[in-house]
């Protein structure tokens, strides 16, 4: 089929608000447009409104204001069984009295498929999650990871166009979780399914998603592909929520085109890139990734501002060195360097000079 306008906005949230009690908004102003086939993750702290958004999309909750559309049609006008949505949750709730195969056949019976068609689809879905031989077992006879695979197969068995997953891997141990992260994205991409995935785990979000919507306080703080989110956070919340980050506070001293000078509260001046600051005198939090700090001054431009730093702690981590410094009155400034043959191991007690490229230091909202 040729893509249509509705394919580019297959799932749309249009100025959506939600209040449960008629007073406080838990979703404040949600605007989101997903193309068909996209894997999008809603990432954010507990209580930021992620599950509420998923429930509204699934039709279990109604929006207080605004409109949600699937394939160009407002979901209010689509009966639940015609929405074609598969769902997987953390407590996967398989029916305990049914076998695995019966669990999978259930959504097909609801949709009135015949027996032979049901059996073929059930087997295909089980094979997809590498559980082809387990159709005759009951859920209690499976490990947690196997049950979660079955829950995934049950969500996919009726070939939905849209799959919603709410922290589906939260109950699994680390190794299995990482394996399932890979499996889920592989299956979703192979089948061309549009997926909305919810997690509070930033690594999971970064590794699985085409785009990530970072939620806080009922709003999307930033919606971007993983690399952009990590390298170009648009505000302090996103900078601190995603990855490790050094934060220094100060006041904008001068601002000129793509550069600004920031006078830190400790008195020193540093170079930064103005992101959401606009004029001298404004307070700012500047954000520098630990791997973008330069400890070799000769690699910086001659007029770059540098800071004095005292080495407090050196941690050998195998692939990288993690060094904690006292910088601008803080004792939690982290530098990460690669364990390369010519890399120096900084000695605690010594004083060094550090700097960075202005574009690696982002002046954000205070
Ligand atoms: N059924 C409900 N009734 C009343 N308040 C709710 C209900 N579900 C969630 N909330 C509240 O809405 C806010 C957002 O919750 P939720 O969408 O579950 O966030 P998240 O999934 O990001 O942790 C929270 O303050 C939560 O307490
Ligand atoms: Mg939730």
Automatic annotation (TrEMBL):
The complex is composed of two ATP-binding proteins (PotA), two transmembrane proteins (PotB and PotC) and a solute-binding protein (PotD). It catalyses: ATP + H2O + polyamine-[polyamine-binding protein]Side 1 = ADP + phosphate + polyamineSide 2 + [polyamine-binding protein]Side 1. GO terms for molecular function: ATP binding. Part of the ABC transporter complex PotABCD involved in spermidine/putrescine import. Responsible for energy coupling to the transport system. Keywords: ATP-binding, Cell membrane, Membrane, Nucleotide-binding, Translocase, Transport. This is Spermidine/putrescine import ATP-binding protein PotA. It is an enzyme of class 7 (translocase). It comes from Marivivens donghaensis. Belongs to the ABC transporter superfamily. Spermidine/putrescine importer (TC 3.A.1.11.1) family. Its EC number is 7.6.2.11. InterPro entries: AAA+_ATPase, ABC_SmlMolc_Importer, ABC_transporter-like_ATP-bd, ABC_transporter-like_CS, Mo/tungstate-bd_C_term_dom, P-loop_NTPase, PotA-like, Transp-assoc_OB_typ2. Residues 11-242 form the ABC transporter domain.
């Amino acid at each position: 089929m040729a893509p249509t306008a509705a394919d580019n906005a297959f799932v749309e949230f249009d100025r959506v608000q939600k209040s449960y009690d008629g007073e406080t908004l838990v979703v404040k102003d949600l605007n989101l447009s997903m193309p068909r086939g996209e894997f999008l993750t809603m990432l954010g702290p507990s209580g930021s409104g992620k599950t509420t958004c998923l429930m509204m999309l699934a039709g279990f909750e109604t929006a207080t204001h605004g409109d949600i559309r699937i394939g160009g049609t407002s979901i209010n006008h689509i009966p639940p069984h015609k929405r074609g949505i598969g769902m997987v949750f953390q407590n996967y709730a398989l029916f305990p009295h049914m076998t695995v195969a019966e669990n999978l056949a259930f959504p097909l019976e609801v949709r009135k498929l015949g027996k032979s068609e049901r059996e073929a689809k059930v087997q295909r879905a089980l094979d997809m999650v590498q559980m082809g031989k387990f159709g005759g077992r009951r859920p209690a006879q499976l490990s947690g990871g196997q049950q979660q695979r079955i829950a995934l197969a049950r969500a996919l068995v009726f070939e939905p166009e849209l799959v919603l997953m709410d922290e589906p891997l939260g109950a699994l141990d680390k190794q299995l979780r990482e394996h399932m992260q890979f499996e889920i994205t592989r299956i979703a991409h192979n089948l061309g399914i549009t997926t909305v995935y919810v997690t509070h785990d930033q690594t999971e979000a970064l590794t699985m998603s085409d785009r990530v919507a970072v939620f806080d306080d009922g709003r999307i703080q930033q919606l971007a592909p993983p690399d952009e989110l990590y390298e170009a956070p648009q505000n302090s919340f996103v900078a601190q929520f995603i990855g490790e980050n050094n934060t220094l506070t100060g006041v904008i001293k001068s601002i000129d085109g793509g550069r600004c000078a920031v006078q830190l509260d400790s008195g020193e001046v540093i170079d930064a890139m103005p992101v959401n600051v606009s004029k001298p005198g404004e307070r700012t939090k500047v954000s520098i990734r630990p791997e973008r700090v330069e400890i070799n001054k000769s690699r910086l431009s001659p007029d770059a501002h540098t800071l004095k730093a005292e080495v407090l702690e050196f941690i050998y981590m195998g692939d990288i060195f993690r060094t904690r410094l006292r910088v601008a009155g803080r004792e939690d400034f982290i530098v990460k360097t690669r364990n390369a043959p010519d890399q120096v191991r900084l000695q605690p007690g010594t004083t060094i000079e550090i700097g960075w490229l202005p574009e690696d230091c982002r002046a954000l909202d205070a």
